[in-house]
Write a structure and sequence with these properties.
The complex is a heterodimer of chains A (114) and B (113). In chain A, 0% of the residues lie in helices and 53% in strands. Chain A is globular, with a radius of gyration of 13 Å. In chain A, strand 4 (31-38) and strand 5 form a beta hairpin. By secondary structure, chain A is an all-beta fold. By secondary structure, chain B is mostly beta strands. In chain B, strand 7 (61-66) and strand 8 (71-76) form a beta hairpin. The N and C termini of chain B lie far apart (36 Å). The model of chain B has no long low-confidence stretch (mean pLDDT 94). The chains are: A mainly beta (114), B mainly beta (113). Chains A and B meet through strand 5 and strand 10 of A and strand 5 and strand 9 of B.
Chain lengths: 114, 113
């Protein structure tokens, strides 16, 4: 079974703090993704990566950065957290070939910025 | 026009009935299609993937794809209260940069006992 884990289920941070969200997958997937999900807005892609050290902006990259130093790990960084970044953050991964492009999600991190 | 459209619902069906969830997409070159189930407060879970025109069955679930009409649907037979969730349709476009999927907004399904 594919397993995607995220570092925290719930996180509370203060405005202006630097926040790190980590995601690890154990299935040797090439592609990894960070989404945020808000009521009424659906899933929105923040950043994705198709290889180590490669990153691509998604639909809403402003205020975020990412790091992928190892194939299994993809980190999302909020450089200076703001209240409008309060959200559910979801990490996902997928293969580049084989069972093409099925994305598997981690359990999510509910981030509250106060 | 949104790239992937779903009726937001809620769709309410009685227990034991067939629930029909629909999704249309705008990119005619799309090749891969997925249905996810998401319970409240949980992350999306992949339930079906379909790549060719026609029907694909897995237990009580049937995915139907019609590329000419740019339409994909999910049928849930013998619906159970445990099927109550939001169902997300996802599509991979022709230019599938890095495995990126386009998600619909989701349809909320409520199965009444």
């Amino acid at each position: 079974d594919v397993k995607v884990t995220q570092s925290s289920r719930y996180l509370v941070k203060r405005t202006g703090e630097k926040v790190f969200l980590e995601c690890v997958q154990d299935m040797d997937h090439e592609n990894m993704f960070w989404y945020r999900q808000d009521p009424g807005l659906g899933l929105r892609l923040i950043y994705f990566s198709y290889d180590v050290k490669m990153k691509e902006k998604g639909d809403i990259p402003e205020g975020y950065s990412v790091s992928r130093e190892k194939k299994e790990r993809f980190s999302l960084i909020l450089e200076s957290a703001s209240t409008n970044q309060t959200s559910m953050y979801l990490c996902a991964s997928s293969l580049r070939s084989g069972r093409p492009y099925e994305q598997y999600f981690g359990p999510g991190t509910r981030l509250t910025v106060t | 026009q949104k790239e992937v459209e779903q009726n937001s619902g809620p769709l309410s069906v009685p227990e034991g009935a067939i629930a029909s969830l629909n999704c249309t997409y705008s990119d005619r070159g799309s090749q891969s299609f997925f249905w996810y189930r998401q319970y409240s407060g949980k992350s999306p879970e992949l339930i079906m993937s379909i790549y060719s025109n026609g029907d694909k069955e897995d237990g009580r679930f049937t995915a139907q794809l019609n590329k000419a009409s740019q339409y994909v649907s999910l049928l849930i037979r013998d619906s159970q209260p445990s099927d109550s969730a939001t169902y997300l349709c996802a599509v991979m476009g022709f230019y599938n940069q890095g495995g990126k999927l386009i998600f619909g907004q989701g349809t909320e399904l409520s199965v009444k006992p």
